[in-house]
Design brief:
By secondary structure, the chain is α+β, with helices and mostly antiparallel strands. The protein contains five helices and ten strands. The N and C termini lie far apart (110 Å). The relative contact order is 0.17.
Length: 235
Amino acid sequence: MKKPPRAFTLIEVMIATVVTTMIAGTVVALIQGFVSALSIQDLRSEAIVRSADVQSHLGLLSLKTRMSLALSPQRVLLWLPAETLLTSGSGTDAAFDRIDLAEDELHWLEFVQEVDSTWTLVEWTVKTDMVAVDESAVFTVDGAFWDDLFLQLNEAGKLRRSPIASGLAAPELATGTIKRPKFVWQTSDCCQNRSVGVEFAFVALMGNETLQADVRLESALAFFDRHPICSESGS
């Protein structure tokens, strides 16, 4: 006579449940770790691509920049001369003293905080169709003068706002009580400075966790041509 199949005992069921729960927990942890690793990798990949875009833009500006006229942690001003080095360096010094607003010679870079508390790296240029053909600024190494000019032009609606990178945050390496993206440079002396760079972070949310990739980029001012006033001042 064939014996009926034996049923599982309560202890066997409990053991099987515990083992299944342990396996399920391990699988979930592995999946979460895999998803987290993918998110981190995605952020790093995105940071590499977006950093390359910023570096490319900064590099192109640096190739044409004669000098950095104003330097501060949140805003810098690059002077991109419309005339050639040979033309501006010949004859009288007046060629150096005239910075044409209608010739796209001034480029401000600024970190602007948005309403959602993220930051955007913005480039401001003069709307050449809104200024007179002969409108110009006289060269000076006084950063306050250029800050005032920026405010005047911006309030008059004569500046064009072009975002370079958005959704930025302060890098973890930022120091001080107020943390924000910032510009970096070789020296604050405009007559001697030979580079302009940026420090910021790309961020991404994964559930309740914030992932961050810090970035530091710097470009040399290849078209470096000091104004005669720098020699006169001994800089």
